[in-house]
Amino acid sequence: MTPVKNNSSSQRWTCTSHSLVILLLSAILQLGLLIYAQHVDSHPERYGGLKYTDVDWRVISDGTGLIFNPNEEEGNIAGGWLVRQLGLRIGDPYERSTFRYTPLLPLLISPTLFHPLLGKSILVLASLAISHLLVKLSEEGSFWLIHGVWTLNPFVLNINTRGSPESLICLFVILTLYHLKNGNTKRGAIWLGIAVSWKIYPVIYVPTIWSYLAVTRRYGWFGKRIWEFGIVCALTVLVINGFLWSIWGEPFLHHTYLYHLTRLDHRHNFSPYFYPIYLSLFSSTSKPSTYMITTLPGIDAVQKILRHPLTSFLPQNTLVISSGFALGTVTSIEFTMFVQTTVFVVFNKVCTSQYFMWFIPFLPLIIPQLHMTRTETTILIALWVIGQAIWCSMAYRLEFLAGQVFLWVWAAGLGLFGVSIWIIGEMLDGYGYGKGGVSSPKAKVQ
């Protein structure tokens, strides 16, 4: 027995040492990209006027400056009741146009006031922390899969070093999953509350977690531990957001939450809703249509309903909620969360590249649970990459060549939408039996 234990201990030590080396390599690569970003941003004229850093980072860092540099004469002062009551001097990040985030984000990256690299380094640390958690959550033998899909993934490194703060919300979601899988429901509830307070979308995981706790943990659908989880999560959300509201008042509620309910973004993106929104925001100068359909009774009401910003949530939320309950009792929690996240992103009325970061951390955890041949896997990956490449080529013609290709951009987006739906279906069909999953007629030995 002793030699076996020594071998096991030696293997764990080898994996740990290799993991540290890869994490260090990822940190060095990201630091190099951050330095490169600094160079490109400082000399955009050498790169066709392009900047490496995403505009989101500039918005967030501007918000940080506004918070720490209040100016009552210019109206830059927080308007919450606590600020007025105590006479605090705190700036308002919502004075910055297009700032639609929680104030926690500019506070967290506040070291950027001293140097941008310091603030962006927090995003790097978050991505490395995700890698560490994924190693702990994964099955034995998934070491290289984790580091290939997340730690050293060029897409992840690029999005992260451009200043998109998606690694932070991914970290909170994975922390929620980590504590739930380890049986600590209270900590899981707290991290879910933090995640929902950071970005509203993690609320979609409630059906999955409810199903997981009720069936897998055998707490019952309305058992004491279920109520405990819900109360702890709700209190976390209320405390965090109540405190933020007491400082920044109504602008905080509007821009952080309510704005996203009625948001209409006509800028080109992957969403199938992009082009209809674009057309609806720009009235036509042509004569009114004389087609019979415009004279049908109730047609105006139907058109208003279809054009309403909340209408897009109907198919999205129906699929997200139903998949959470339907899959949550027969598949692993990480697989169900992956499906929910992917469906949410694909059906969202605004879909950009950084949103893909939301479901990538789940991939190393669920791939071992899939029974798919290498050929099938290669085809799925190739189609998804090709779909994005086609869309990017159309978007380049629109953005940089000023081509009249709005319709082609939309068509490319619809193509990627169709490919994404097909991939989700194939992954559902290939989910393995005997690993906490449901039987599949397509299950194959890898």
Automatic annotation (TrEMBL):
GO terms for molecular function: alpha-1,4-mannosyltransferase activity; GPI mannosyltransferase activity. Its main location: endoplasmic reticulum. The chain crosses the membrane at residues 20-37, 189-214, 226-248, 355-372, 378-398, 405-425. Keywords: Endoplasmic reticulum, Glycosyltransferase, GPI-anchor biosynthesis, Membrane, Transferase, Transmembrane, Transmembrane helix. It comes from the Eukaryota. Belongs to the PIGM family. It is a multi-pass membrane protein. The keyword Transferase applies. One of its GO terms (cellular component) is glycosylphosphatidylinositol-mannosyltransferase I complex. It is found in: Endoplasmic reticulum membrane. GO terms for biological process: GPI anchor biosynthetic process. Pathway: Glycolipid biosynthesis; glycosylphosphatidylinositol-anchor biosynthesis. It comes from Kwoniella mangroviensis CBS 10435. Its EC number is 2.4.1.-. InterPro entries: PIG-M. This is GPI mannosyltransferase 1. It is an enzyme of class 2 (transferase). Mannosyltransferase involved in glycosylphosphatidylinositol-anchor biosynthesis. Transfers the first alpha-1,4-mannose to GlcN-acyl-PI during GPI precursor assembly. Required for cell wall integrity.
